[in-house]
Amino acid sequence: MTFSSNPLVDETFMAPAHHLLAHYVRNRRKQNTGLSDERFLTWGVMRALDADESGRAFLQARADQAESLPRSTWFDAFKSKRRLEMLTEVATKSYQYFDRELGDRDWLAEFEELNDHPVWAVDGHQIAHATHSERDGKGRYVASGMIYGLCLHRGLMRPLARFQGDAKRRHEWPVFKENWQRWLQGEPRQLMPIIVADPAYVNNLYWVLEKIHRHAMIITREKENMEPMIYGPCGFDPDDPINRGVVSDDHAGYSNAALRRIHYRDPATGKDLVFITTCNHLRPGLIALLYFLRWKIEKAYDVFKNRLGVTKAWGTGDTAALMQAHFVALLHNLLTVLLARLEHTGLSETKVIDRQKKRRDKLPPDKQVPAQNNVRYAFALTCQFIRTVRNALRYKIPWEDAYPLFKLRMESYL
């Protein structure tokens, strides 16, 4: 990033998405008036960033800044299948583009055995229904639910599919099964994907067959009502620091399939956890680490809700829901890329890194987990960083003035 020409922050923040839209998207429609695709893309990201309580409030804020748009034009855009196709294409290509740009910012760089495996934490996320949403047969509103994936290499987010909303209720699992293989098409890494999910995604025979067909491997938790038969140990090196906390690593049989079963006792808390997986080539401590990193998707949802204020559906129907999910994920990824670019200029989230180090140093050596200490960059976007970006874009601040603000807010808490 260079500041010699002193551009505005908003000119550089949206530049990657606009570049992809202009040069790599087939569903783009060129128009110079009204709500162009470029304007729709920018406004959708800003709608997610500005934390306005409603779509009308967002449009008023735009109008008060001399950027007015008819209300019907904005809301009708969220019913457009063509615009959804355009946005989906931008989001998909942006993930691939950002993955390359963040090449040296890999959460899992210390673990060479994961270099060529896509590793995705997957979970559902619910927000309040839209104002005009339908009620179900019992007269109740249904929250809008979307499945997302978080890349555990780069921290990038991608929506997968909607599983409920507008009077319809579905469990995450069948929706995930219907969509995940299409969702992972074009994944840049060469080896089999690893999916890390909570016990809602337990289906032992399904995952064994997926591995046999070389589609994907699973890491999840054993359910309390599962009664395995232990066949024998897999064997692991207890002296490997990565395996600290591993009690046992066994082959286990369940009602309809055999999996690897890892009993882990968290050194910091003493809590016992049991993981099941079809990954047979990874060290057991690394299996435990990847499951612990699954919680980072929960942290991302907390950012969506409490730091970005995205708590309610913007419209009704699957088209509007998917557009909103793409805009929120694209914003998350643009913020992640901006943070990485700032790091290349010498800035970093010093306050977060120092706090993590202090928390770790308080633990006695026998309660520390070396595997967790080897994970870099895996922290949530902070309130101060998000506010600084929001203010820089809202008030059209040039980089010459914004850079010292980023330095101040990233180095220490208010």
UniProtKB/TrEMBL annotation:
Q: Which SUPFAM superfamilies match?
A: Ribonuclease H-like
Q: Which domain of life is it from?
A: Bacteria
For this entry, the protein name equals: Transposase IS4-like domain-containing protein
- Organism this protein belongs to: Synoicihabitans lomoniglobus
